[in-house]
Design goal:
The chain is an alpha/beta fold. The protein contains 16 helices and 13 strands. The protein is elongated, with a radius of gyration of 21 Å.
Length: 363
């Protein structure tokens, strides 16, 4: 089987990391992968062992010339199906290109952002199947009119073993410049509005006053970096809240966190939640989108209403003051990730959809 994958993201996290897991798993099963992505992007560099990489310009949702570029690539590669992995123009332009080339096409939907029903009716007509990475996203798609016959759910995954390691003493101080005795609360998310960093900043002042050892670390990058820096400064939280950017050593740092907080206002599933759980870290997160599938409330973490700073503060306080409960949640989360969110199951789930589509085409 030959599959052309299309991913327009520039950075190797979130959806692009899931594509890399999928490519590796498919290659191990004898699938011939081709990947269209931005020239020189991190995904393309890492994927060269598992796919033939085709770098091409991808300028976003309005890049209509992408249709021609992808059509010519499809005609040259002659895949049996095309798998669209991101929006950023690929969902629409890639769908049109595949339709023009007469090739079966599926799209993986990773976000729960609502779309107008008219757009859903037009755009998803291009796709033979739509894979939602959570039941939360599937509910959104159903509510917007996507036919059930087109919809499949294949959850995102994480390589649990990579994060299931003990925290090396002194690592936080060495890598992030924090006091060795610090109680570290982490947020792992792009610095964009829907991830809810501003909600957390409203919840922190009282908590930081109660917990002198507490330090808060924002992992990630994004357009709100300067805004968040200004908000931290205005709230007098300098020295207690730190922006540390995108980290290649996240797998080593996560096990050193006392708590992972994810105050997102919208979220498809939350791969960072799976990573933290695999590392044995308890979680406080918003009850929104696919998050309740990643965090079992009262078992692996605590869920709160989105946007409610007081509820967020109360949940963080409850766990920060109860080390035994944090440990219990962390152990339960690590076991659940290994059981429910394995890369093997994610790869097999996608393969089932591939075989289903190819059987339809043969008929």
């Amino acid at each position: 089987m030959k599959v052309l994958h299309i991913e327009g993201g520039a950075h190797l996290y979130g959806g692009a990391q899931q594509v890399l897991y999928l490519l590796e798993g498919l290659a191990a099963r004898g699938i011939e992968n081709h990947l269209a992505c931005r020239p020189g992007c991190a995904l393309g560099v890492r994927a060269e062992s598992f796919a033939v990489v085709h770098g091409m310009p991808m300028h976003g949702d309005l890049d209509v010339l992408m249709i021609g570029r992808l059509y010519r690539l499809i005609r040259r590669v002659q895949p049996e199906l095309v798998h669209l992995h991101s929006r950023i123009g690929a969902d629409l332009m890639g769908g049109l290109a595949a339709r023009l080339a007469g090739v079966a096409v599926l799209h993986t939907r990773r976000v729960d952002n609502p779309e107008p029903r008219w757009l859903v009716a037009l755009k998803y007509r291009l796709h033979d199947r739509v894979i939602a990475i959570s039941e939360g996203i599937a509910r959104v798609l159903r509510s917007e009119g996507l036919p059930e016959a087109k919809l499949r759910v294949v959850r995102s995954a994480v390589v649990a073993e990579r994060f299931a390691q003990p925290c090396r003493p002194g690592l936080i101080g060495e890598r992030l410049g924090l006091p060795e005795e610090a109680l570290v609360l982490g947020v792992v998310a792009q610095l964009i509005a829907r991830k809810g960093h501003a909600v957390l900043l409203r919840a922190l002042p009282a908590l930081l006053a109660e917990q002198p050892r507490l330090r808060v670390v924002f992992f990630g990058q994004g357009p709100l970096a300067d805004v968040l820096t200004q908000q931290i400064d205005a709230a007098g939280l300098n020295g207690r809240v730190h922006l540390v950017g995108f980290r290649d050593d996240l797998a080593e740092l996560l096990p050193c966190l006392a708590l992972l907080v994810h105050p997102a206002l919208m979220e498809g599933l939350g791969v960072s939640l799976l990573q933290a759980a695999a590392a044995g870290v308890p979680i406080v997160a918003s009850r929104v989108g696919g998050i309740p599938e990643a965090v079992e409330d009262g078992v692996t973490g605590l869920l709160v209403p989105p946007g409610e700073a007081a509820a967020l503060a109360q949940a963080m306080r409850a766990l920060l003051t109860d080390p035994a409960r944090r440990e219990r949640f962390g152990q339960a989360g690590a076991e659940r990730v290994r059981r429910v969110f394995s890369v093997n199951e994610m790869v097999e789930g996608n393969l089932r959809v591939y075989h289903e589509l190819l059987a339809e085409a043969a008929r």
